[in-house]
Design goal:
The structure is a homodimer of 713-residue chains. The first copy, chain A, is built from 24 helices and seven strands. Chain A is α/β, with parallel strands linked by helices and 713 residues long. Chain A has three domains: 68 residues, no CATH class; 446 residues, Up-down Bundle (Amino acid/polyamine transporter I), CATH 1.20.1740; 129 residues, HUPs (Rossmann fold). In chain A, β6, α24 and β7 form a beta-alpha-beta unit. In chain A, α15 packs antiparallel against α16 and α19 packs across α20. The longest helix of chain A is centred in the last third of the chain and has 59 residues. The radius of gyration of chain A is 34 Å and the shape is elongated. The two termini of chain A are 40 Å apart. Chains A and B meet through β2, α20, β3, α21 and α22 of A and β2, α20, β3, α21 and α22 of B.
């Protein structure tokens, strides 16, 4: 429908043929619309000329709006990048700063080009898993230390057991990747096969796990740097610097927060760039680790591999028991975190997605298994004992010597660990978005930001993990106890879900598949139980409490949205009234151009306008009445005398009284509002309008309309 | 005009005879109003019964509104005290706390009973002048000290000169009090007789002077307490406590701020109570001072008056020059501050106002003159030297001995000094209110608060003087240099104004009057010049700079209000349009009950409604279009595709584009707004509405209407 622009001067130009032509598109259902006073919502190219319409004002857009909106059909516009330019200079400066760090906004159609190839995908999704080889051995050794130096060799065997388990889990996840090409995270698999609650439990476990991944990886990464510092002889200085920080902060925490900030920024830039930035240290670490294992094995075979610093002699505090071995196993099991990352990210892979994802998964698991067993062997061989310097640093310095290669390797370790957190930054926001789509998390997590990344989830994860690092003072040993519960809970839920999936679908080779996932389900569930029991007292209890809390939050958010959705649902049999029944109240202090404008607005929108004057001066009221008789004789004036000289409260009470008498009436308060040229000029005007807005903010049947009046100069 | 309540169900009951009866009161000027759908702004006593109207719904008010509003005529209501009860519990608690300290709100009609009799008026308006006898002698002596002990006796002669001047000024002001029974402050007298600018200069001088009065009096009052502490032997402890405070604070400043808070509160309670509270120490001081002078004179005659601590022997740094004497005179002249107070407050006196005020003025001036000369005599007689202990304390301890009478007198001194500030608290807000009425200060200073006191002026003065005390670290000697310039400027302006007044009016005895005021004008102007010159370097320059700045602020505020007034003035020859030409835009995300309510609102207020949908999903847009066809087929939908996934900016750009095409059209944006039961639930909903409100806050042709939708539970 094309409405011609015709001002108040009533130059009428009905253009009947064009109106008819357009009526088909937005069918008029008999609601009468007078043609005069119609305003066109279309954007035309011509200057608005009263009483004279340009021929085809649909297709052309008037400059400069041609640059901002493209008209694709009548009433259909596409906003260009220029539409995103802020109105004021401050906003533009902020946008420029943001653009410098985060990059230009990306259009939705730019998305497909952001897919990942295997090399980049390994860096994105693999860094978490592979990097855990940097701290998992040490986690085992810390447990075994309690039984003296003689117990340390057990870590080699727990490493082999974990590597075996890893291959089973990886094999199992390969099946998931094929079965769920649109993203087969534990949440999806559990929800579809086991039901809503198991799905939410898996989701809670994963989200907590992602936060822990960031915290642990970053803390371990800074640990690698500090170890290099100790090796180069700056141990005392590091301690001194650390002590100079205020409580809750030490050099590790400060560095960690800096790295988290860096990763957050990188992720806000979007998916592919993350891959490019982060691929370098990942591959540096992989090649470095391979070199270290190769040289180390060669040296150990030739008998030339010796620790640089003689390992400490430990007191044998307790005997080697099954409990101790199980605890060492649980501690080492953190190596497996991140294995599920790829299954969540299948849709981001280049086509064929599932095949590429499965191949990447196999490569990742192989590297992790080899690295973990290898480092455990070398450390056991030398009888290394964890201390201020990390185990991996002790091995590296023994292999490379105090050479540049050692330092490169430490930096690469730091690099991959800091970047391992990136897996979580890829997954947490994606899972949050899925949960938001299913209405288990706020809408804010649903949408992609400027750079097609889920900005809110990224910022949320960054903040949360920084907070946890501060609370735990960046201590890897404390953090690691909270880890692994979520990992194995997710494995267990996913495998169980896959068993149900195969049973239900019974596709090709379903029997083989069900056996693989079934065995894996039993394994991972058993290990989950072991992990919970052995780590419960030292920190896992926090997670055991946290998961139900997070699930309850999901449920609450869901209940809220469902409840709102139900309340808002339109029932075609009981359509709400087409119009509302309203009082329009115009509180006036005096009759002037601003209040006349408000009155004109009120007169335009309703025939039931009541002017209300709060008075504490009889004379002024009389004057006002006279002015009204002269300028707005059609309006009814209600005078509310307020001998306590208050204004807002009697007015609210009056409106309440009106509501109580007319329960189904809506009250629209129309007020003039001065738009002052300078902020400080606002102090010179009464704040009545702002007060009324605040008072009626939560009133279900009152709207406050501020009719602006521009003060010049 | 009585509009019957008739809901959407269209039960019509026109009641023609009643309509006619009431039409006389708000004349209908031919604007047609259909009777159906009319809502009555009147408050009735009966339950709203659709289609059935109660007989006379004017005179009765429905419970509980009968308690809140009294109907005095159709459309005329008076709000009772109950109308001032806050809506929520928090507000009520705050009101109860305020009421405890400040008292119950007073109705405007309670004002006349707040007039002052002479005894109370002397306490209110006299405390400033009388109390200056507590520090004026010392101010002279501090100057004379530079010429050694031998110069100190000069203070007695300067005191006599000042007392003579005081009697002249008082005599002159008595004439003003009779000539200006409605308040003859320097501002009023100067403005009416000399012109706007002289009036504003006098007003600036007075306002600054009031602030200084508060600061100096309070600082001197705490000095009295500290002197008593020194006499009782706690000097070292006081110094120790003072040093323990953070920078900018010492025991004096902290005590001073406490006293300022107390006075502020007392004044917020309102005029009469201030009189009652403050009369006690004023009269205690007056009687104590009379006793001290009597006993002191007797002792000095009998030769038994000796200082308790032998006065310090001063080095004779400079000779006694005219310059030194003039400086001593200027310093002592601070005694005269507060003399003009009564002339401002004439309307607050009981009838006959002028006579009572003049009598009070005479009593006040007599007391001040006698006290000042007396204390100067006694101090000169003993050769006292100012030090850590005040002169008045030294005299008092010499007269009373270290007895309870000395301490009572010190407390009374502190009392009257702290209360002297009260004069300023009575005058500053009153003068501010007059200036606000004349549009030289913001409206906020115009109105009386809950307790019929000018609350804003009181709070402003309290804050400002506390700030000055902090800046000057509560040091009386530093503060006093800023004083007296304002005092004599006000005297000079007032007297000059009175000369012009007598010349113009030429009433009875005008020749005598003109001589009195003329002589006084010459005197006070001369002394003003002396004060400015002698005190310029030590602080008066601040006031000399400040007065023009304050005058410029007055002028600016005035210019702003005048400018706004001019802009808002209705020109009967060019009345603004009766209605406005508007687009109503309803941005919608989805069709649900909330958006249908917003659409219904929009449909009610305009025929030019455009729904606008910001889309980044083609499918959703199609779904929306279908829902619209079903539920709102009469509405036009504009779709704005936003491939950058931003919402608010393209919408603002679109509105700008519309404005550019239709420059005289107003745009009303109608949005649904969820009213959530709990604050935290708001996080679960998009903040688009709030963003739009913020963006269009300053737009002169856009109003944003948030149509509330109550979410249950």
């Amino acid at each position: 429908m094309l409405y011609s622009f015709l001002g108040m001067s009533a130059d009428i130009n009905p253009k009947p043929e064009q109106n008819n032509e357009n009526k088909s598109e937005a069918p008029s259902n008999g609601v009468e619309k007078p043609q005069e006073k119609k305003l066109s919502p279309e954007l035309t190219t011509s200057e608005p000329k009263k009483g004279k319409l340009s021929g085809d004002n649909y297709v052309r857009i008037r400059r400069p709006y041609r640059d901002i909106f493209k008209t694709i059909a009548p009433g259909r516009f596409v906003a260009t990048a220029k539409s995103n330019v802020p109105q004021n200079a401050l906003g533009r400066s902020y946008q420029n700063i943001k653009r410098f760090f985060v990059g230009r906004p990306l259009f939705s159609h730019e998305e497909p080009s952001q897919r990942l190839n295997k090399v980049r995908a390994l860096a994105i999704f693999g860094s978490d898993a592979i990097s855990s080889s940097a701290y998992a051995t040490e986690a085992s050794l810390v447990v075994l230390m309690a039984a003296g130096n003689g117990a340390l060799h057990i870590s080699f065997f727990t490493a082999i057991a974990i590597a075996a388990l890893l291959s089973m889990v990886a094999f199992s996840y390969r099946q998931t990747v094929y079965a769920y090409p649109h993203g087969g995270g534990s949440y999806n698999v559990s929800r579809q096969n086991l039901g809503k609650l198991p799905g939410l439990i898996a989701a809670a476990a994963l989200l907590i796990d992602y936060v822990m991944t960031v915290a642990v990886s970053i803390a371990a990464g800074t640990q690698a740097i500090i170890s290099a510092g100790i090796t180069s002889g700056y141990g005392n200085q590091i301690t001194a610097i650390s002590n100079s920080f205020p409580p809750f902060f030490n050099i590790g925490v400060v560095l960690s927060i800096f790295f988290i900030g860096l990763i957050t920024l990188g992720n806000l830039r979007g998916v592919r760039e993350s891959g490019t930035i982060f691929a370098i240290p990942t591959y540096l670490f992989i090649f470095g680790f391979v070199a270290m294992l190769g040289i180390g094995l060669f040296k150990s075979v030739t008998g030339t591999l010796h620790p640089v610093v003689t390992p400490a002699q430990l007191a044998t505090a307790q005997p080697i028991t099954l409990w101790l071995v199980l605890r060492a196993f649980s501690a080492g099991a953190v190596a497996m975190s991140g294995t599920e990352a790829i299954s969540n990210g299948v849709p981001v892979f280049k086509k064929p997605e599932s095949k590429n994802a499965a191949t990447t998964l196999t490569i990742m698991a192989t590297l992790l298994g080899v690295f973990f067993v290898g480092i455990s062997y070398l450390s056991t061989h030398m009888g290394l004992v964890p201390g201020k310097e990390t185990i991996i640093s002790q091995v590296a310095v023994a292999v490379f010597g105090n050479t540049v290669f050692y330092y490169i390797f430490q930096i690469a370790t730091m690099g991959i660990l800091v970047i391992a957190a990136n897996t979580a930054f890829a997954d947490f926001p994606r899972l949050s978005s899925v949960l938001a789509k299913d209405k288990y998390l706020p809408h804010n997590f649903l949408h992609r930001g400027d750079r097609l990344a889920f900005s809110n989830g990224i910022i949320f994860l960054g903040s949360l993990s920084a907070l946890i690092l501060i609370i735990f003072k960046g201590n890897v040993d404390s953090l690691i106890h909270l880890y692994a519960v979520g990992v194995f809970l997710a494995f267990s839920m996913s495998d169980t879900g896959m068993v149900v999936h195969w049973w239900r679908t019974r596709g090709k080779n379903w029997k083989t598949s069900i056996v693989i996932n079934g065995v894996d389900a039993v394994l991972t569930t058993s290990i989950l139980i072991i992990v919970v029991i052995t780590k419960f007292a030292v920190g896992a209890w926090i997670i055991v409490i946290l998961i139900p809390i997070v699930v309850m939050i999901f449920q609450f958010v869901h209940w809220h949205y469902e409840n709102v959705g139900k309340q808002l649902k339109v029932d075609p049999a009981h359509l709400p009234p087409m119009t509302i029944n309203q009082f329009v109240l115009v509180p006036i202090e005096d009759i002037n151009l601003a209040s006349l404008r408000a009155i004109a607005f009120a007169r335009t929108i309703s025939k039931d306008v009541v002017l209300i004057h709060i008075s504490n001066d009889q004379e002024e009221t009389e004057k006002l009445q006279k002015k009204m008789d002269a300028y707005s004789p059609d309006m009814k004036l209600v005078v509310l005398e307020s001998p306590l000289r208050v204004l807002v409260r009697p007015l609210t009470k009056y409106i309440n009284a009106l509501h109580s008498q007319h329960p189904d009436a809506f009250v629209t308060i129309v007020l003039p509002e001065f738009i002052a040229a300078h902020a400080w000029e606002r102090f010179l005007h009464n704040r009545t309008a702002e007060q009324l807005v605040r008072v009626f903010k939560k009133h279900p049947n009152v709207a406050v309309v501020l009719v602006p009046y521009l003060l010049e100069k």
